[in-house]
Structure formats: C-alpha cells, structure tokens
Design goal:
Radius of gyration: 21 Å
Order of helices and strands: HHHH
Largest sheet: none
Mean pLDDT: 89
Number of strands: 0
Oligomer: single chain
Helix content: over 70%
Shape: flat
Low-confidence stretches: none
Strand content: under 5%
Number of helices: 4
Distance between the termini: 50 Å
Structural class: mainly alpha
C-alpha cells in the first residue's frame, strides 16, 4: 500500500516538474529587462495558435456522421461569433449553449 502511494506521488511530482519546467522555459530564454522577443518567435506565436485550433476542429468533426445538423450549426455560430466579436470565450460559450439547446430540441 505504501509503495503504491509513493508511486502515485512520484507520478504527480514528475508531471508537476515537467509542466512547470515547460511553462518556465520561455521566461528563462526570453525574459529579463531589455531583451526583445526574436521576430521568428513572434511569427511562430501568431501562426501556431490558429493551426492548433484548426487541428482540433478537424479532429472534432472527423468522427461525426450526418445524423443531425446540431454540431454544424453550433460550429457555425462559434465561427461567426469569433470572427464578428473577436472574443473566443463568448464564441465557445455561445456555441456550446446552441449545441446543447439543439440536442434538447
């Protein structure tokens, strides 16, 4: 029993260390007064986020079958709100609410 608890604590500690280290890495490399962020990193930052979102959308819709239009309508609402209001939180919440409402209907 004690070895299982020690193993679980070790897994949690390792996960914490890796997560903390990866999140701290940019501050170590690019932090400090008077240090500019390299242009290549700025371009990469502007490019990676939309690519990740596109991958998530493709993955989410890949296994759907055309039984109901609810996922597509909710996705359309989310996209329109994001492009119109430029507020991801509003778009995600509204898309989720539309999807849940259409499932109940």
């Amino acid at each position: 029993m004690a070895s299982e608890v020690a193993y679980m604590l070790g897994v949690v500690a390792a996960g914490f260390a890796v997560n903390f280290g990866l999140r701290a890495l940019p501050f170590v490399f690019f932090g400090g007064k008077g240090r500019e962020l390299p242009k290549s990193v700025e371009r990469l930052g502007a490019f990676v986020s939309p690519v990740i979102i596109a991958c998530l959308v493709v993955y989410s819709y890949a296994s759907l079958e055309w039984r109901t239009a609810a996922p597509y309508v909710a996705g359309g609402v989310t996209i329109v709100l994001e492009l119109w209001k430029k507020n991801p939180l509003l778009a995600i919440i509204a898309g989720t609410l539309v999807y849940m409402a259409l499932l109940r209907a």
